[in-house]
Write a structure and sequence with these properties.
211 residues, five-stranded parallel sheet, DNA-binding, Arc Repressor Mutant, subunit A, homodimer, 2 domains
DNA sequence: ACAAAATCCCCCAAAATGGGTGATTGATTC
DNA sequence: GAATCAATCACCCATTTTGGGGGATTTTGT
């Protein structure tokens, strides 16, 4: 059974380049090429791809939104992101969106085939540099204006705990927690839980994931 | 200037094995070996290591807690995790704790040296398989009992938003949000924001990170 | 046509929140 | 020694939020 592949990429030379490469491989069948996500979505029910090669930067809906849509309609379909620019945040977001891996734009035939086969086998193909990027997105939470205690309190806020619950967990009075929060709000120049979480999160002053 | 290294590893053969390897390298100086984190912490101010090779599984305080302590005291000190077992959750947690990379237990000399040098140069050495593990921890949020809309609402709750704010953001009435939340609580068998977040988070039914 | 999902409404009481203005202790720094 | 900061706690006040209980209607997918 041939593996059905579609390519979503607005740059025609890259698009045709991939097509040319993939058509030399017996086990692949390139169903269609698209220059935007919208068109690709319309034909998904005919193409029924096993693999989607998707660019991130696209006119209209971008590759990340496209990945979300496709995975929603066909959860078993594997979306591989075609990329040159290794933007940490975009890489991270596309993985969260359900991307199955990465293919570097200037790969040679054997690398491309290897990546696709790896994805089909359940792996998560990507270059080491991309993997590092993701990993590093968990670190570098430096330069926080918040004290240790304040960070701890804000972290608890982010976990949805009430002041009373936080007070219990940290073995202090509820008033103490209120004090810390007032200081947090002053330092972050916000005046609500949601805003504090947003600011702290975007600056990576909290871990972001409840552990 | 020689790079100061300490090793924290309870298995004596692995510990001595690494020492033997590292001592053959001119630019490294193995300051001390420890079989637990507590001992290592006591001598940190004398050892002043540039690199700590740390096992995860340790008697007493584990390598993750140890990493957090060390990074708190000496943020510039690089902690490399020595590992065989590639447990997705432990890997993830140790990276969050500030680990700078991974060294596989049965590496050969050149791999070890390469990893350490890479870490010193600011990289994040790790095997591709470990990187994949981290990446995959962002996916597979399947089998949620929550509907799309409910997930969206719960996600907003996790971002610290009030019912009113969520209602505004989703262009619906506050009462609608209340309805969704009642259903969420019923499905997850909880009766508070914090518990709902905890349950959804541990099952990866929400993304965990605000994007 | 049926079920599920999404939307909206009201009532109620308890809890949580945000802002203000304080105070005390201990550690560190100048 | 003075000054600063971190962490702790207190009380007042008004407003908002929350959770639980009743419902109801409309849209959507199968």
């Amino acid at each position: 059974m041939k593996k059905r592949i579609i390519i979503v990429e607005d740059n025609i030379s890259i698009r045709e380049g991939f097509r040319a490469v993939l058509e030399t491989i017996e086990k692949y069948e390139v169903m269609n090429l698209y220059s935007n996500v919208e068109e690709a979505l319309e034909h998904l029910d005919q193409d029924l791809p096993d693999i989607v090669l998707m660019d991130i930067e696209l006119p209209g809906m971008d590759g990340i939104a496209g990945t979300i849509r496709i995975k929603k309609l066909y959860p078993d379909c594997i979306v591989l992101i075609i990329t040159v620019l290794e933007d940490s945040e975009k890489v991270f977001r596309s993985l969260c969106a359900g991307a199955g891996g990465y293919i570097v734009k200037n790969s040679n035939i054997s690398e491309i085939v290897q990546n696709i086969d790896e994805a089909l086998a359940g792996g998560a193909p990507m270059s080491l540099s991309i993997a590092k990027m993701v990993v590093q997105s968990f670190q570098q939470q430096q330069n926080s204006p918040l004290t240790e205690r304040e960070t701890e309190v804000l972290q608890s806020i982010a976990e949805g705990k009430s002041y009373s619950k936080i007070a219990l967990d940290l073995y202090v009075s509820k008033e103490t927690i209120r004090s810390h929060i007032k200081n947090i709000y002053r330092k972050l120049e916000v005046s609500s839980k949601a805003d504090a979480i947003k600011v702290a999160n975007s600056n990576k002053w909290v871990t972001g994931r409840a552990l």
